[in-house]
């Protein structure tokens, strides 16, 4: 054992509290309008959530449909390493369905809820506090016959009088509840208020010292993560979250934001989680694609711009030391390293560095010429993708650096036939031009089939994103294409008022980026071998 290993092994174990992550993406997250999942999609996502390392999964609302029941049942049978939750209203039929669907889980929990705020009782349930209290008692006692672990949620707790919350919590603890969740159902609370709710209930409710406390926050005022952290600091040791913060209205507390806040500031918070950070990005992308919910560019942690920098000052600092403008390591979360985005605020240092990544070395005069061309292009495109930058370098040096160039594209579309595409590609080394045709159920599929014939790479076509950049008849669209080769992701971007052409250019750009990266790596390896 070397000295560094001995030093590591001799370090004391962490004294931080472990915060359990309760994921409700497949239940509360799915209640977001338009995010409905098929049972088979739920099962795939549940597997990924287990891989991510969440402690508890709430896979759905079993009583709501036969498909939902079947999905919860299969997830319970398959994922034996994760605690599975059966969600139910304080109604016997709901409880029976939740109990039956989770029967095969290695560890399971029943999650019961009923409204507690006066506005809910008066206008929704039309019941008195006494009636609701009795229902809560009876249904917890009924559920306790079947399961040991029962979580109880007084819905809209943050807008409920503290005395009644305490009375309700005492009642359900007496009947066997083991986890008390105090939800901020409408995202109304401020962090100080929400933290005080936990302190007050934990101090005032008899039996509170014998149960666990959980936070469930919505994001209507953008405070879900802040409120969840306040709850942790007030004694909660479980937080209910969703991937990408998806959920009703403005969504739920975001798993990735909460986990990385805890991870980044664990010494200040005194807590940590068991989440596998390297799976965060892939899980986020999988949920986004499956639910057809795009991720905002400026979304913390997983948004496209979260670790990208255009400012020349920031880029210069990052190239010298990453910690100058980054407080987290994106690669530790499985996020591809692409910290520098080239736009009109970028400087020559960043341009030179990016071209060097593709093995392109420029003289000072050539760099100045590329820089001037780049500034003109940046005003037009906002963000200058790698394939465009390489083309600018080719123009300045009178040398084609791109392995392949798209010369021409034509697409024939119609309502009663397959779409037919034709592309002409020029290969750099031989200068040969080839024209190929392909078909597809849509024009994009037909074009990609052509390009896959024209550019012989064994990469997997992973994803295509199309975004509108303007409105009107002359609107421009941006296409982003990602391909995967040897577990490495390569992305091409193009902007054009013909979105099909933009997608084709983006695909060619991604392939070129991959090929130039491989060539540069091979060149470095050969140099090392010769040395």
General description of the model:
This protein has helices at residues 3-9, 39-52, 66-78, 92-101, 118-125, 129-144, 162-174, 191-204, 224-233, 255-264, 266-269, 280-291, 312-320, 348-357, 364-381, 386-397, 443-454, 499-530; strands at residues 17-18, 20-23, 56-57, 83-89, 108-115, 150-155, 179-184, 212-217, 238-241, 271-272, 404-412, 419-427, 433-440, 460-468, 477-485, 488-496. It has 531 residues and is an alpha/beta fold. The chain has 3 domains: 16-291, TIM Barrel, CATH 3.20.20; 312-397, Recoverin, domain 1, CATH 1.10.238; 404-530, Alpha-isopropylmalate synthase LeuA, regulatory domain (Double Stranded RNA Binding Domain, 2-Layer Sandwich). The strands form 4 sheets. It has an 8-stranded parallel beta barrel with strand order 2-3-4-5-6-7-8-9, surrounded by 8 helices. Strands 11-12-13 form a 3-stranded antiparallel beta sheet. The chain has a 3-stranded antiparallel beta sheet with strand order 14-15-16. Helix 2 (39-52) links the parallel strand 2 (20-23) and strand 3 (56-57). Belongs to the alpha-IPM synthase/homocitrate synthase family. LeuA type 1 subfamily. Keywords: Acyltransferase, Amino-acid biosynthesis, Branched-chain amino acid biosynthesis, Leucine biosynthesis, Manganese, Metal-binding, Transferase.
């Amino acid at each position: 054992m070397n000295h560094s290993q001995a030093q590591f092994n001799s370090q004391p174990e962490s004294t931080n509290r472990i915060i359990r992550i309760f994921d409700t993406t497949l239940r509360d997250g799915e209640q977001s309008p338009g995010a409905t999942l098929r049972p088979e999609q739920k099962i795939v996502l549940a597997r990924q959530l287990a891989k991510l390392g969440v402690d508890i999964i709430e896979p759905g609302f079993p009583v709501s449909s036969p498909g939902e029941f079947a999905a919860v049942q299969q997830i319970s049978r398959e994922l034996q390493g994760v605690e599975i939750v059966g969600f139910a209203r304080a109604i016997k039929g709901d409880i029976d369905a939740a109990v039956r669907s989770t029967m095969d889980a290695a560890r399971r929990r029943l999650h019961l809820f009923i409204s507690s705020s006066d506005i809910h009782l008066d206008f929704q349930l039309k019941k008195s506090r006494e009636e609701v209290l009795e229902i809560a008692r009876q249904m917890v006692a009924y559920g306790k016959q079947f399961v040991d672990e029962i979580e109880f949620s007084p819905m809209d707790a943050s807008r409920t009088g503290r005395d009644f919350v305490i009375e309700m919590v005492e009642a359900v603890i007496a009947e066997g509840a083991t986890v008390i969740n105090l939800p901020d159902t409408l995202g109304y609370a401020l962090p100080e208020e929400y933290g005080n709710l936990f302190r007050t209930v934990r101090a005032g409710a008899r039996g509170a010292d014998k149960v666990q406390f959980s936070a469930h926050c919505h994001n209507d005022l953008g405070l879900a993560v802040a409120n969840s952290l306040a709850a942790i600091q007030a004694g909660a040791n479980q937080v209910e979250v969703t991937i990408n913060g998806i959920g009703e209205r403005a969504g739920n507390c975001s798993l990735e934001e909460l986990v990385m806040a805890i991870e980044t500031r664990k010494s200040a918070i005194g807590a940590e989680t068991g989440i596998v950070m390297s799976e965060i990005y892939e899980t986020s992308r999988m949920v986004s694609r499956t639910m057809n919910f795009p991720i905002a560019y400026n979304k913390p942690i997983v948004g496209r711009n979260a670790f990208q920098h255009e400012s020349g000052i920031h880029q210069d600092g990052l190239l010298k030391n990453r910690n100058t403008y980054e407080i987290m390591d994106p690669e530790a979360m499985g996020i591809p390293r692409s910290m520098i985005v080239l736009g009109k605020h970028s400087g020559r240092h960043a341009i030179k560095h990016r071209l060097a990544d593709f093995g392109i070395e420029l003289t000072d005069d050539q760099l100045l010429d590329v820089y001037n061309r780049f500034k003109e292009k940046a005003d037009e495109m906002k963000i200058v993708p790698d394939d465009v930058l390489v083309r600018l370098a080719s123009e300045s040096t009178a040398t084609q650096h791109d392995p392949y160039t798209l010369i021409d594209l034509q697409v024939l579309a119609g309502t009663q036939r397959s779409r037919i595409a034709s592309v002409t590609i020029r290969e750099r080394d031989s200068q040969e031009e080839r024209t190929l045709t392909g078909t597809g159920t849509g024009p994009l599929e037909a074009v990609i089939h052509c390009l896959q014939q024209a550019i012989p790479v064994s990469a997997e076509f992973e994803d295509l994103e199309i975004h509108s950049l303007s409105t009107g008849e002359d609107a421009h669209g941006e296409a982003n294409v990602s391909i995967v080769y040897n577990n490495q992701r390569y992305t091409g971007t193009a902007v054009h008022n013909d979105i099909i052409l933009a997608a084709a250019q983006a695909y060619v750009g991604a392939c070129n980026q991959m090929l130039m990266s491989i060539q540069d790596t091979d060149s470095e390896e050969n140099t090392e071998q010769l040395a």
